[in-house]
Amino acid sequence: MADATASDPRRTPLHAEHVGLGATFTPFGGWEMPLRYGGELAEHRAVREAAGLFDLSHMGELRATGPDAGRFLNTALVGDLAGVGVGRAKYTLLVDDDGGIVDDLIGYRLADDEFLLVPNAGNAAAVAEALRERAGGLDVELADETSTTALIAVQGPAAEGVVAGLAADRAAVEGMRYYRAAPATVAGIDVLLARTGYTGEDGFELYAPAERAVELWRALLAAGEAAGLAPAGLAARDSLRLEAGMPLHGNELGRDVNPYEAGLGGVVALGKPEPFVGRDALERLAEAGPARVLVGLVGAGRRAARAGYAVHAAGADAEAAAIGAVTSGMPSPTLGHPVALAFVAPEHAEPGTAVEVDLRGRREPFEVVDPPFYRRPKRRAD
Known about the structure:
This protein is of the alpha+beta class and about 375 residues long. It contains 9 helices and 19 strands. The protein has helices spanning about 15-20, 40-50, 70-75, 125-135, 160-165, 170-175, 215-225, 235-245, 280-290, and strands spanning about 25-30, 30-35, 50-55, 60-65, 90-95, 100-110, 115-120, 140-145, 150-155, 180-185, 190-195, 205-210, 230, 295-300, 310-315, 325-330, 340-345, 355-360, 360-370.
């Protein structure tokens, strides 16, 4: 993955493919990424109705190996990675000493002494640095494989058929359960195949050598054409993840947010035997309860709430202080009405609570709901 200069955004191994498909690009997390190829609504609908093909090669890949790998991750992260079985994945968090979220990431256990961690693009370097600092005295090696790894995702109800049709072992793809990962051969390319996702749909992630990325991308694109698969950019990825109620680092998550505020208290394994960074702070925060709560909002009208807009109690007078703020919001392409995520005071967080969002000087009615806003039909892989 080449850099033009140190200050220019990085490009994934698939950049020329995106150019050829007519993509519009945007800087994201230090990378130049496809925002859309044509219309983001069409890309969104393709994922909900058929399948979307995403280039996620900007995400970080960090491999931890060694006899102490599991214990190391249990001291560095809030979750119990040492308790995860081989071939399974776990969503977890890296926090600072005060319990603030440095990043959210997925960890895959590939062997008893081997894990793959996938941090967000803009945080990959910070996560790698923090992990190295936390590895002192343990028999573990940490390798940054971001530059040599391509990550392609196929998401949507047709995803299984597309990937399985190219796999050397079709039954293994069809039999893979959610939040699992295993080596596979797809389109003649050896990959790590995972079944996770960030769209609210069924789907797969394929971790492949960077030099085989174009070959794999083209094979998936061709195999999915008859099923309605379409390349999809970051705009569709954002609207899909919002409908699914999934937090985004920089919007819902950051160093000024702790797991209990973000509704991620269940990710924190306070009972694991290993002491971990941020544990004391998180124990205090768990006992005190959150000062604000991340909730979903559904609009009664057509105007969408956007990040930063103030949330007010319903009927509050103009001088009353806001009770919270929107972190993400847009009209839902699937549901046909505005949806948003927002932090609000706990006393206004009960589902069904009526609130108002200040939409550039005019307050519009919204209702508090439990995310996700969209739930896909249950399928066998669940």
